[in-house]
Amino acid sequence: MFATLLQSTLLLAAALSTASAICVLPSTEPLSNNITTGFAIQVQNTSYPIINNRLMNLWQAGGGDRHLYLFPAGDQTSNLTLQNGIITRLPIRAVINGEYTATDNTTKIFMTERGDPRAFFDVIYGCNQTDGSVQKELSFSGRGTLPGGHICVRLASGDRYEFRYSPPGNTATARLCMKVTLAIMESEP
Ligand SMILES: *[C@@H]1O[C@H](CO)[C@@H](O)[C@H](O)[C@H]1NC(C)=O
Ligand SMILES: *[C@@H]1O[C@H](CO)[C@@H](O)[C@H](O)[C@H]1NC(C)=O
Ligand SMILES: *[C@@H]1O[C@H](CO)[C@@H](O)[C@H](O)[C@H]1NC(C)=O
Ligand SMILES: *[C@@H]1O[C@H](CO)[C@@H](O)[C@H](O)[C@H]1NC(C)=O
Ligand SMILES: *[C@@H]1O[C@H](CO)[C@@H](O)[C@H](O)[C@H]1NC(C)=O
Fold this sequence. Notes:
Pfam families: DUF7909
Bound molecules: 2-acetamido-2-deoxy-beta-D-glucopyranose
Strand content: over 45%
InterPro entries: DUF7909
Protein name: DUF7909 domain-containing protein
Keywords: Signal
Radius of gyration: 19 Å
Number of strands: 15
Helix content: 10-25%
Shape: globular
Largest sheet: 7 strands, antiparallel, barrel
Distance between the termini: 55 Å
Order of helices and strands: HEEEEEEEEEEEEEEE
Number of helices: 1
């Protein structure tokens, strides 16, 4: 009885260590902040199943702009590139500006041809929060010349989830904006 219990405890411990050993990041070498092959972006936050593992879509707006929403709002997009750390689909690029709201102290991130402050990202290896596989992620590094902060998504009108920028040290919590990991889903060659 005791031996069986001990054995199963050991087996469980071994299984758990195997599970955590699954996600070994390949290297700590910095990855290039240029990605020329098209990719899609999947958001992850397992604390919020309603948004976890959903794709980022582009919603057609005025003047060639595209606004960022979670699937199923907007158009599925797998031909994004990263140019000098900026999410790009020529001729538009990801910027942060406008539609500021004080309740969560966040600002809109969207894609445009215009020269608003750019959203900058580094490329890093990370662990898929759902299945522990190794993935590449876009790690937010800053808005224009202001470093830090993060990207979050929040519920907007029409039951759509929109993308926002939360500045460093943001303490406003009157409206929920869920911090997300942006996983890169590269297209098959
Ligand atoms: C990224 O691409 C740009 C041109 O789009 C180039 O100027 C820059 O040197 C490249 N950076 C790296 C790290 O390869
Ligand atoms: C990306 O794909 C969309 C939809 O398929 C297409 O309309 C657009 O021209 C493509 N853009 C680039 C830069 O590849
Ligand atoms: C992360 O894992 C989940 C579950 O296997 C999967 O649905 C999702 O597509 C994965 N994400 C990436 C970027 O591979
Ligand atoms: C809101 O963000 C600004 C930076 O954009 C920051 O200076 C300010 O402290 C923030 N306010 C709160 C309540 O976090
Ligand atoms: C999930 O979202 C919450 C609320 O924004 C945040 O505090 C938490 O850090 C996020 N989890 C991850 C793994 O990003």
